[in-house]
Amino acid sequence: MRRTQAPKVWGLFAEDAMERDLDRAVFAPREPSLAEMTAKAIEILSRHPKGFFLFVEGSQVDWASHGNDPVGVVTELLAFHAAVQVALDYARSRDDTAVFVFSDHGNGGMSLGNALTDGTYSRMSYESVVAPLKRAVLTAEGIAKHIGDNRTESRIREVLRRSWGAGRPDRRRSRPDSRLSRAPFEQCRRSHHERSGQHWMDHPRAHG
Ligand SMILES: [Zn+2]
What we know:
Layout: H1 24-27, H2 34-45, H3 60-66, H4 70-92, E1 110-112, H5 126-135, H6 140-147, H7 153-164, H8 184-195, E2 198-200
Antiparallel strand pairs: 1-2
Helix pairs in contact: 2-4, 3-4, 6-8
The structure holds zinc ion.
């Protein structure tokens, strides 16, 4: 696909949704990034003598937010940012191209600070909020996929430790991890929110 010079191209890279950007390296290393697809689309369409209209959607910022997955939100937004940069770089090389960037609807209601930080909020450092997100090597969806049906407590602890650096729960703060095996995805997410001082207004619901 990267090398094709065909004037009309249909790229279909997954049977269902493509992997989240952070999870691609593990689950689908051959899938292109949003920025790569944007660059190829511009390369093909810009050959048209009458100009072109290109629509690019970074659709999984929304999904990650509906899922209250902070790692997914941040990394999908960064992937979208890279795609916008590709479009802007092209537009800056021209004098006849406009780029419009819009957000989707608000959802999730992610905020920094939660009930556990009520007494310390004014003293919270930027690093204390960002460091847990930077340590993550998979999104919450990627972790759920990695755990699969093998939902033993030890398995969940191991995947969390490797993926989010979250293997040593602070028992004063986190709910008992023995509950992990019942609903691992929800417990992983709650545990991570507590550790990294986030709060979400809306709880997970269907994509929309
Ligand atoms: Zn939505």
